[in-house]
Every structure is written in C-alpha cells, then in structure tokens.
UniProtKB/TrEMBL annotation:
InterPro entries: Protein_beta
A Pfam entry, by short name: Beta_protein
Organism: Nonomuraea harbinensis
Protein name as annotated: Beta family protein
Amino acid sequence: MTVYVAILKGRQPYLQALAEASDQVKSIIRPLIEVFPRRGDTEVKRLITRLAGQIKAQTLADVDMCFDTQPLASYFGPSGRSEALRRLTDELGVHAFRPVVHLGDTGEDLEELREVIADQQMGLCLRIPLSFAHNLDYPRDLFDLLGLVGESPERTDVILECGHCEAPAETHRQLTQPMRRLLEYEWHTLTIAAGSFPSPKDFKPPPEPCITRLPRAESELWCRVSTAWRTVDYGDYGIDHASAPPADGEQPAPNLRYASGQQWCLYYWPKDSRGRHSTFYPLCRALMRSPEWPRSGPAFSWGDEQIAAAAQEERGPGGGAQWKAFALSHYLALVTSTLQQDAREEDGYVSMP
C-alpha cells in the first residue's frame, strides 16, 4: 500500500484535521510536521509545550509522525531545532517520532541531532530538494550525512521534494536521474513530494463571491511517477503552498481550499456588511450544489460534515483556522481514497464508476 506523506504546518487546524481523520486515512498517512513559531513565541520551551499539548489533546500520539524543527533555527539560533526535538522527546516520549534532517545540514547541526535520533530509535527522515539532487555525489554525500547521525539507509525515510510544481511533465523529466541513483540503495521508504497550491501572496479579498478552479499539478505528476516507479510513496503539502506559512493574526474573508479530482477549487466570499463571517453559510451552500461536492456527501469526511452543518446554519460560521481544518480534512480523505483506489485497480479490482 502506498503511504501518504502529508507535509503539514504544526498549527492547530492541521492537527485537528488529523485527529478527526477516519481510520482509513490514519492507516496510510505519515505526517511530516513542520514546526514554526507563532507571533509572540519568545522561547522554544513555550512553543514545544503548546505543540506537544495539542498533540496529546488531539490523541495523535500514536500517529506515525516526523518532526522538522529546522524553521526554528532562524528564530532561536542554530541550537533551537535540536532543543525543540529534545523537548518533544521529553513531552511525547521515546519511539514517538522520526526527527528530520536536511541535505544542507552542517556537521555541527548533525552532531547536535545525533543524540535525539539515537534516543528516539525510530530512524530518521531525510529531505532532499530536487534542485540539489542533481549535484549529489551518490552515494558518498548521503552516506557521509547518515554516518554523522549514526543511521543507515535501511532506517531512513527519504523525501525527494519537488516543491511547487507547475509543469508535471518537466518535473517528471528532472526526477529521472536522481531517482535512478536513489533506487540503487535500500531505503526504509522513498517518497516523491510536490504541491501546486498557489502562494498566499496571490490571495486578495474578493469584492464579490468567487470560485476559482486551478489544475492540481501534483496529481498529474503522481500519475507519471507511480507509473515509472511503483515502489515510491506519495507526498504533498496538503492545502498549502510549499513555502513558510503567512504571518499570524490575519483575518481572511470566508474561504475554502477545496480539492476535487484533478482540480483545486478555491471558494472565496466577501465578509458581510458588518465585516463578519455570516457569508460562510451561502459559500457552503454553493459548494454543496457544485460538481466538487462528493457523492457520499457529508459522510466523506469530518470536514464535509462541518461544511454541510454550516450550509444548514446548524453551527457557527467559524474563522480562518476552522475553514482550514474543514478543507484539510476533506483533502486528506480525498488523497487517501484515491491512493487506495489505485491500489485496488493494481490488484485487479474494478473501481466503482
């Protein structure tokens, strides 16, 4: 079964969507959580205590996760990432997660991470940007890196990251040489990750209700990848752009980042005349009348249940964090159901029309 590596921000809506996911979703998902500070975070301890508390409160401690704390280095100094991983170990316990290392990490970085990796005893996750992969001296560069943290390829999850993808055919062509070299070795898992959700800077408050449909380039890329390399796993960035999250404190107009098949469907409604979110209700009604709405309706995911309840005005309109949780919940269900359908078709089962 193909594993789904969802690269997600370590924020409340993303953790909530994971917590509310069905057993079907949880059975094949391996989230990689990127740990970013919020505005007002002045120390690593406070940030990790909050994150670990959310994970435990959402009963996510048993989910197979990786944690990437590299973003903290630019806020708290180079030792911030290793301190965060040590505090996550203290909060969540050993055997709780795989630490993430990067191809560009220095020997000093890796020396600090070595102890955490040894304590967790879960192996590690190695992120390799496709833009750097062509310059690797295989296998020396990768094996030198693994040697510095005391791990082997057999205990390493490799993620070859394409980042933001706009031209699937060209990206697939660029993958050919790095994949040929990577497949010469026995990794624990090998994942190709890409995303095509637009950048936050492209979002502008709409003057009137607006539905924008864009191609999901990562879906087309996966069709090519899964045909060429059947043993690789699928990865993406959920309902986000591959870049860092926008600043905290933004109050967006009602919106849903909804996905369907080969398309992103971006629903944006302006705020009501009082600057509030009551227009989320007609947004949800419009979505439920659209071809994007799943045939199983609210039963498709927890997020779709919440959207249907809002369409009937049986719950409050919520805000940006809730809308992200609803949309991500739907997206996780969509991706996992697609991967499982692909697996059934490979095994000779005929999928439902």
